[in-house]
Sequence to fold (422 residues):
Amino acid sequence: MPTYSAPRGTLDVLPEDQPYWRHVTDRAHHIAHLYGFKQISVPMFEATDLYIRGVGEGTDIVDKEMYSFEDKGGEHICLRPEFTAGIVRAYIQRGMHTLPQPVKLYAIGPIFRYERPQAGRYRQHTQFNIEVFGEMDPAVDLEVMEVARHLYADLGFGGLSFQINSTGCPQCRPQYVSLLVAHYQKHKDAICEDCVRRIERNPLRVLDCKSTGCQPVIASAPHFADYLCDECAAHFDRLQHYLRALERPFAINHRLVRGMDYYTKTVFEVWAEDIGAQAAVCGGGRYDGLAEILGGPPTPGIGFGSGIERIILAMKAQNVPVPELPRPQVLIAPLGDEAKSTAVKMLSDLRVADVAAVIAFGDRSLRSQLREAGRQAVRYALIVGEDELRQSRAVVRDMADRAQELVPIEDLIPWLKEHLSA
Fold:
């Protein structure tokens, strides 16, 4: 018989890792609600053209990383490689542009990218996503950035700071792109093949290249901040004013452009200390023209995405403690067939009463069943044998100090509730 492994670039989240997942997602839900965001769930697949138009041809996501296919009905479908385009589609299709603005949404779920698997980054990974629609105020940029910072601070990350840049708007970007292309044309023989392709199709992406040979060319490239129009410059200055007012550490990173075509004005990353060579833990930015690209009315927008797997990997590396998940509080240890019948009814009654309980399966000795109670770390073992049945009682054994008490079966639930809450 063949043996099977999980597909390359995917992750089985085993029971021992679930406390991390529950804690991170619980805190993400809590902080999103704290800031007034409402949850949205969108399909895991959309029309391929949604991402081609939204994310943009010439990006690595569209050119190399999308899981796209033709379904049985002949439709061109794509597993979502990111959340924003699908949420903008829902915002337009479901009439959310008619609601009082801004509309503040968040989502948690899997995204899919065919890329080289690496630590904390998988071909299927889970993302916490924040989006705000319908407001251009730089204070909204700050609010989105603060959600990200708050989450990481809440999870125990230290040395948090922002990297920020402005990528302008359709009025000022063409001038900068022309200057950038001209700069790279002078150094065409020194740059990597990817940047030769990018300078023709998606010029801003050259600033994010990691190739060693391209670094001197990037270092000498013009800075976007020097060519912003008055509106974009004022927006960027105001955002910096708010960051200083909150005393948030930040730096202007002229190389920061992000990976999708839809970004305008503010782009940002959150950086943390002591998590390895890659200091960026999440990133996002403003996408004021995306709704129009996807057929909707002009709508400002801003958001970010943060990978849950990468958060958990960093938490483990820093030995950040997480709460344990709830576990059974009671184990019923029956002795004999008649006792087993009674125990099954007791088990059902306990669960209906919201007392987490398990039973020792199989025909096992009392000693074996008590070892099972210790392995499951329950608070009490309820022992029911022939003698106990005759008296309609159960022996309640405290697994911590081994003290035992006879309790009438009809009084077990109130007795347990009282002692478990103590």
Observations:
- The chain has 15 helices and 16 strands.
- The mean pLDDT is 92.
